[in-house]
From TrEMBL:
PANTHER family: CHEMOTAXIS PROTEIN METHYLTRANSFERASE (PTHR24422), CHEMOTAXIS PROTEIN METHYLTRANSFERASE 2 (PTHR24422:SF10). Residues 618-642 are annotated as: Disordered. Residues 9-202 form the CheB-type methylesterase domain. SMART domains: MeTrc. Keywords: Chemotaxis, Coiled coil, Hydrolase. It comes from Cupriavidus malaysiensis. The keyword DNA repair does not apply. Pfam families: CheB_methylest, CheR, CheR_N, GAF_2, PAS_10. The keyword Coiled coil applies. Residues 645-700 form a coiled coil. This is Chemotaxis protein CheB. The active site is at S23, H50, D144.
Length: 985
């Protein structure tokens, strides 16, 4: 199968990577570690903080103050170098692939299990060739870094953990230590020296952990095998991080501290195994998730499907990994709306599949709480839902368009002849090999012209693999070829049964034949699994086959059992039921033990029923009353009629399920038949594609020359071969310039990396992108350089494109400026909470005030002491000596006056202000004309000090200046007040 070219960089070996992970309380630990590093290190350091994105952007500034080692931002496509410290952008999750950094957007800041920042980077480093990596886990809450440390150890790397006794928060270090995946436990002051020792040739790993990786891998395999026997859910293709995260959740809930002990627990406790199996699938879905993406679908995709649909042939949509069904129903609603807008010219069917049968059963009911309908407009609620039992159910006309069927994308063959398939947010949990496998399966299911809709975080370059890009932002693609890469996509096949599989099946049968007869059911009474020998207790009645336990017990006991189950679910407490009749062939009665179970989300939706011999096993408590139904052998028509209606409803749902299963089986047969016909269609498709390509080239040529597209093509000698007219706004180009070297021309923008980036693209086949600014007038352009390959593997030139991003960049600069201010305040708070000197915390605010603006302002903080002011930080010591003790009074000027009155004092020009005449010598000596002073006051009005800003030229404040001063004086008030309270204690 063809590998997906997510970037297709040339493989390169990165230098040794030392990854440092920290979370809450990690600032102090990072400072101590950086201060103990030598000036020249033979490795690259990557610092990852498990914090909200807004808290990370001040980290490069802070680390630059703690060490002389260069600090850089790890950008997409850059290569790590030795003797450098790299910080990821706060908006992205960082990985290392083929020796270069790769970034992808964090999922709205809510980094989900298995793709957290520290784990993601450690796992990617473990996969890269080169010197063994080193992971350092510092202070932090949670378990981020634990799963990544597992992969580092499996790659023969070293794991160093901060001593929990020295950590402000010990959850992250302890999560690694308790699972035995560490090599060294050290105080922060000793970690730098240990890193240097680890890279020495004579370094030997401590003997206590040499055999750990194989042991844990085998243990994880045992757990996966137990899950496969329990539920048939094969997790072999999933990334380890989500599995470790959920297994660790269950381990913490059951207070089990090693994987080996937990593996033994699930082998002995079938209820725990069932709970784990139900908690592993990651079901994250909602109606019309990413609302703008659905607008694009309705506008640009679905009308094309209806327009191309043949008469009497329905449009076929497939929601793979549909979870609880919200997305599948969203597709159906959109198809129905477009169908009505096109006067119902085409029919449609939506196939919804998932690997978990019980989740699929919930989806098929189409019943949702009101909280789930946040993304559904009122008009759609009225059109497609009706209210029942304080919930909302999909109306039958829409449900009849749906086919729900169990399906495993990794093992089962895909459906065929599909017009539209969506598979969102599944691929991020799969290993790369399985991603290729699943994408090939989805490709094979689509007809030519069909559409593929992936999740926002699943960006793959599919345009060279038989797809064209419809929406790069929302990852919508259109199939244009029978070829997936360089070969026809082949349907995946289910693996053949091996001796190991047979042995596992025999073991499962043996487990279920042993012990007391038991059953696991859901809220509706459907049997999910049987244990032991239930012959004589449960048996199929005449008529339609059923899995409902209330129909499998004797008729005389059905109502009593149903009432008891409902009461146990309601009370959330186990209960006993005596004298349950067996089937007529075995008249002896049995006792029943009902144990309600709670899932990880807190819902009581499972019941474990154990059938016990009557003699001596159960005490005989009062059986639950039968409300208006059956008691003491009497029969009440009202209850009987109610239960008969329920049975009729359940039977109808089972008939619908059977119809859907048969239809799904028919779809699989059709898929196999479509694959057999693919070869016959290949020649016709090639001719069609050739004509289509010619039309596309003509259309693209017209678009390029008629619009504002700025594109320039250079050969390997950097000579101009082709450009669009719009490019003349960036370079002074004329038609006679074709054949000239680009270096001979003068550009309107400042871009020192322009020519080096072109050379890098020519030699490394990697695209380069940067934002550059023009000189006059001030404009911003997004500059991108792409390699051009005439044949695969041979680069014959580069394409350079520019796009005007002035408005967006100006907004981003303003937002970044505000982010710098916010981060400075938060970092200052954190330093103050650690009782750092007040000069340090207020110094962070001063740096942000000076660095976050484009003028030459200088700033300083003063603290009130008695009747005078003391300079704290900002101005030179000579200046402080001149102004320390300055009187706080209404007769004073600048800071003294601001503190005395509690109001800002704005002096635009010191030279014309009468109050400043005695102090003009001071302003001249230290080079400022404008002076603004702002009081620092407690909430109750007590003056604490002042903030001063000095300017070389006369200056009036803008609204942003006043807002900035207000924010920083409030922050300073809290820090100064805490400092004073600490000194009094």
């Amino acid at each position: 199968m063809t590998d997906l070219p997510t970037s297709r960089p040339t493989a390169a070996i990165a230098p040794r990577i030392v990854a440092i992970g920290a979370s809450a309380g990690g600032i102090t630990a990072l400072q101590k570690l950086c201060e103990t590093l030598p000036l020249d290190i033979p490795f690259a350091i990557v610092v990852l903080q498990h914090l909200p994105p807004a808290n990370s952007s001040m980290l490069p500034t802070l680390i630059s103050r703690w060490t002389a080692i260069p600090v850089r931002i790890a950008t997409d496509g850059s290569r790590p170098d030795t003797n450098c410290i790299y910080i990821p952008s706060p908006e992205h999750i960082l990985t290392l692939e083929h020796g270069v950094f790769r970034t992808r957007a964090a999922d709205g800041g809510g980094r989900r299990p298995g793709i957290d920042s520290i784990d993601a980077f450690l796992e990617s480093v473990a996969r890269c060739p080169g010197p063994f990596p080193i992971a350092v886990i510092l202070s932090g809450t949670g378990m981020d870094g634990t799963a990544g440390a597992v992969r580092i150890r499996q790659a023969d790397g070293v794991v160093i953990v901060q001593d929990p006794l020295t950590a402000l928060h010990d959850s992250m270090p302890n999560a690694v230590i308790q699972r035995g995946i560490h090599d060294h436990i050290l105080p922060v002051s000793a970690i730098a020296q240990q890193i240097l020792m680890c890279i020495e040739p004579e370094y030997k790993r401590p003997s206590t952990s040499i055999d750990w990786p194989n042991d844990v891998s085998k243990t994880l395999d045992r757990i996966i095998c137990s899950i496969r026997r329990q539920s048939g859910f094969d997790l072999s293709g999933y990334k380890p991080s989500p599995l470790f995260w959920r297994i660790q959740q269950r381990m913490d809930a059951r207070r089990v501290w090693t994987f080996a002990d937990y593996s033994s627990l699930i082998e002995d406790d079938p209820i725990e195994l069932e709970t784990l199996s139900r908690s592993l699938p990651i079901h994250v879905t909602e109606f019309f998730r990413d609302h703008d993406a659905w607008i694009v679908l309705k506008r640009d995709v679905l009308p094309d499907l209806f327009h191309a649909a043949k008469k009497f042939q329905p449009i076929r949509a497939w929601s793979a990994a549909c979870s609880t069904g919200e997305e599948a129903y969203s597709i159906a609603m959109l198809l129905d709306e477009v169908s009505q807008e096109s006067n119902g010219q085409a029919d449609y069917t939506v196939f919804a599949t998932d690997v978990a049968p019980e989740i699929l059963a919930r989806a098929g009911r189409g019943l949702f709480h009101e909280s789930s309908l946040a993304g559904v407009s009122l008009a759609r609620r009225a059109a497609y839902f009706y209210a029942v039992d304080q919930q909302f159910r999909i109306k039958r006309p829409l449900r009849e368009r749906m086919v729900f069927a169990p399906h495993n994308l990794i093992l089962d063959p895909p459906f065929g002849g599909i017009d539209f398939v969506t598979c969102r947010n599944l691929l991020i949990y799969l290993e790369r090999e399985k991603v290729d496998h699943v994408l090939a399966a989805l490709f094979s299911s689509l007809r030519i012209g069909g559409y593929l809709f992936l999740g926002k975080g699943e960006s793959y370059h599919l345009n060279n693999l038989g797809f064209e890009v419809i929406s790069p932002k929302w990852n919508i693609f259109r199939k244009t070829s029978l070829h997936f890469g360089t070969s026809i996509a082949r349907l995946p096949t289910r693996p053949t049964t091996t001796t190991a599989n047979l042995a596992a099946g025999e073991q499962r049968i043996a487990l279920e034949q042993a012990g007391l007869p038991s059953a696991l059911i859901d809220e509706a009474g459907s049997i999910l699994r049987l244990y032991g020998n239930t012959a004589g207790i449960l048996s199929l009645p005449a008529g339609e086959p059923t899995h409902n336990i209330f129909q499998l017990v004797s008729r005389n006991s059905s109502l009593r059992l149903k009432i008891a189950v409902q009461q146990a679910f309601s009370d959330h407490e186990p209960m006993n039921l005596i004298d349950l009749d067996r089937r007529p062939q075995d008249p002896a009665s049995v006792g029943v033990r009902l144990t309600p179970l709670q899932n990880p989300a807190g819902a009581w939706n499972r019941m474990f029923i154990t059938f016990l011999p009557e003699e001596g096993i159960l005490d005989k408590p009062q059986a639950p009353d039968a409300p208006s139904g059956e008691a003491d052998g009497q029969y009440y028509p009202e209850a009987s009629e109610r239960w008969r209606d329920d049975d009729a409803r359940i039977t109808r749902e089972e008939l619908e399920a059977s119809r859907e299963e048969l239809q799904a089986l028919n779809e699989e047969l059709r898929a196999s038949n479509s694959q057999l016909n693919a070869s016959n269609e290949e020649l016709n498709e090639s001719n069609y594609q050739l004509r289509e390509k010619i039309d596309q080239l003509n259309m693209q040529n017209r678009v390029l020359f008629s619009g504002e597209v700025m594109t320039l093509f250079l050969d390997r000698d950097l000579r101009i071969r082709w450009f669009t007219p719009a490019m003349q706004s960036v370079f002074k180009l004329a038609h006679s310039d074709i054949g000239r070297k680009i270096s001979d021309l003068v550009s309107i923008f400042d871009d020192p990396a322009f020519y080096p980036d072109i050379q890098d693209v020519l030699h490394a086949t990697e695209s380069r992108e940067i934002v550059v600014a023009s000189r006059d007038p001030k404009k911003y352009f997004s500059r991108r350089i792409h390699p051009y390959q005439s044949v695969p593997g041979r680069i014959t030139g580069v394409a350079v494109t520019f796009s005007d991003v002035t408005d967006r960049t100006i907004i981003e600069l303003k937002l970044r400026q505000r982010e710098i201010w916010l981060n400075a305040q938060m970092s200052a708070f954190e330093l103050a909470m650690t009782n750092a000197p007040i000069e340090h915390s207020l110094g962070l605010l001063i740096s942000a005030l000076a660095d976050g603006t484009e003028d030459d302002r200088r700033c300083a903080f003063y603290i009130a002491q008695g009747d005078g002011l003391r300079h704290v930080v900002g101005m030179p010591d000579e200046y402080a000596k001149c102004v320390n003790g300055f009187l706080i009074a209404e007769e004073s000027l600048a800071c003294g006056l601001a503190v005395a009155t509690g109001k800002s004092v704005i002096t635009r020009d010191i030279m014309i202000e009468p109050r400043w005449k005695p102090w003009i010598w001071l302003a001249k000596r230290f080079g400022y004309r404008g002076c603004w002073s702002f009081p620092v006051m407690e909430t109750g009005g007590t003056p604490l000090g002042s903030l001063a800003m000095y300017f070389a030229e006369p200056r009036e404040p803008t609204p942003i200046d006043l807002e900035l001063a207000s924010l920083f004086t409030k922050t300073a008030a809290i820090i100064i007040a805490r400092h004073q309270q600490t000194r009094l204690q």
